[in-house]
Amino acid sequence: QRHVVNDVLAGQPVSVTHCDISQCTRVFTASSGEVLGISCGGWHQGGLLLFAHGAIFLQGSGGSLDPEHPAIPLAELPHLVTTWGQWKSLHPNTDIY
Predict the structure, then answer these.
(1) Partners of 5 in the β-ladder
(2) What phi and psi, each to the nearest 5 degrees, are found at residue 70?
(3) Which pLDDT score is estimated for 67?
(4) Angle at 88 between CA 83 and CA 91, to 5 degrees
(5) What is the mean pLDDT of residues 13-39?
(6) Is residue 17 predicted with pLDDT exceeding 90?
(7) By the 8 A CB rule, do 17 and 25 touch?
């Protein structure tokens, strides 16, 4: 199962991270215009670790395991976690790829 999806939507980089164990979902962006390249960095105390910008961060808090990087250096986007059925009911003209 994939835990991280990186893409560029309408010129804005977007990375969606999801941990199916802790049910934590976070969505990140930056002003670079390029794919963020976040990847899964493993597990730590029951939570997903994210590898970004040369450091490892806790997905849940955004804190770093490296004192030189205090927090994940990315902005967060608002998001909604829902089912496909609920989304399609509210937005019947949605296209997917």
Answers:
(1) 16
(2) -65, -30
(3) 84
(4) 125
(5) 92
(6) yes
(7) yes
Q: Which long-range contacts (CB under 8 A, 24 or more apart) does 4-10 make?
A: 4/38, 4/39, 4/40, 4/50, 6/35, 6/36, 6/37, 6/38, 7/35, 8/33, 8/34, 8/35
DSSP 65-95: SSTTS-B--SEE-------HHHHHHH-TT--
Tokens 């199916």 — which residue? Answer: 20
pLDDT at 1 over 80: no
Helix (H) or strand (E) holding 26: strand 24-29
pLDDT in tens, 33-66: 889 999 998 899 888 999 998 899 999 999 998 8
Q: What are the CA-CA distances from residue 39 to residues 32, 49, 61 (Å)?
A: 17, 9, 16
Backbone angles phi, psi at 29, to 5 degrees: -150, 170
